[in-house]
Amino acid sequence: MRNRVTRRIRHTILGAMQRGRFITFEGGDGVGKSTQIQRLAQHLLKHGIDCVVTREPGGTPFAERVREFILAGQLPAHPPMAEALLFAAARYDHIAGLIRPTLEEGRWVLSDRFSDSTQAYQGAAGGANFSALMQLEKLTVGDCEPELTIVLDLEPMTGRARIAERGGGLEVEVDPFEGRDLAFQTRLRQAFLDIATEHSERCKVVEAGQSLDTVEAEVWQHVVVRFELEAG
Ligand code: TYD
Predict the structure, then answer these.
(1) pLDDT digits 0-9 by tens, 183-200
(2) Which fold has domain 20-227?
(3) Does residue 52 contact residue 110 with C-beta atoms inside 8 Å?
(4) pTM value?
């Protein structure tokens, strides 16, 4: 009885609390998402907004295991749709285990990649069937769509150079996706730009070849405008 009352009170309090906001970062390899997502988290913290930074594939123990499996490389040849299903399995768990509960607690979620990556990598650049991917997205994401997506856009050659720099001139470990050829990276870039045009309300493109501080300021500006925060 007492438990039921406590649950009801908790439910009422959570219901009255404002749901958190969901922001995703997208773009090709080496565009600087992880740096910019951390900088945005710092801005939000300064504004008293509690946020959780997560990534895809990953974010929950199950999804991190799927990540290890996919990114380990040396997978036998497989259709792009099989790959999309693996990413979707990880995403389904990520939403159920981390994204949705965090938003319901009133905290914000910043995710380094989300479903646009499947559309771009496995779909537009990889050749998986578009309408099948749309059905898969509906099933996986449902109503848990991001409210703002920052697309970091960078010329693929520059992205490559940045990945090489990560190792300070040493041989760096490149995941099987980063290792794909320039033609793939070029299709990928166009795919993200097309997604941004199609979903122009949700997606904001930021030119990632600018200085880190300039990119940071532009990202922050988009967040301020979208969620009507005080700038500064
Ligand atoms: P990661 O090391 O996180 O790369 P990045 O820093 O560029 O995000 O590796 C994730 C890789 O997985 C990345 O190359 C993009 C790819 N990927 C897909 O192909 N489909 C997807 O749905 C997602 C989420 C990622």
Answers:
(1) 999 999 999 999 999 999
(2) Rossmann fold (3.40.50)
(3) yes
(4) 0.90
